[in-house]
Amino acid sequence: xxxxxxxxxxxxxxxxxxxxxxxxxxxxxxxxxxxxxxxxxxxxxxxxxxxxxxxxxxxxxxxxxxxxxxxxxxxxxxxxxxxxxxxxxxxxxxxxxxxxxxxxxxxxxxxxxxxxxxxxxxxxxxxxxxxxxxxxxxxxxxxxxxxxxxxxxxxxxxxxxxxxxxxxxxxxxxxxxxxxxxxxxxxxxxxxxxxxxxxxxxxxxxxxxxxxxxxxxxxxxxxxxxxx
Length: 228
Prior knowledge:
single chain; alpha/beta; Rossmann fold; two-stranded antiparallel ribbon; 9 strands; 23% helix; 29% strand
């Protein structure tokens, strides 16, 4: 990337350079397009691959969210697995969003909405959230991001996040337990230096705006599996 580029920049300063690449998604190999100025432009990064290896099958319908989509490995997987669902690929990087649209079109997917955060209608609730969140934006920005989107998880649904262990996955886990009392957050898997966190909203959970208890929610963690 150019010196002024970050994958969480809204408009990368470097000159756009498109190039083809081969990637395996949802059990099939595809020829897609990538570019500079985005996160992990030439491959599915290790964290995203760990998440894909540990999430259950995508819900067959509803509104599905890839939060911090990059060029779209999670969003495209959701759309391929759930052609009757609506997939929201959300990022602040316009170049990344353009690549999601380009690759969705190439795959013949008509159920992907690549959107800036403020362009997602406020009344949309999500049947699942998959995210490799942008940890390097800083703790405050990350917390603000999750506070905006996690309460929009539908009752009876799960959010799945992957976070590198040495970049604060355990402290984020504890923060989520204290911040979202309507969610039960557990560690679902550990692999290759990453944690997969599962945040489940119970079917009888009160609407997010009514969940005001600041008490720390203690939820059991899954036993730590040996790393691959």
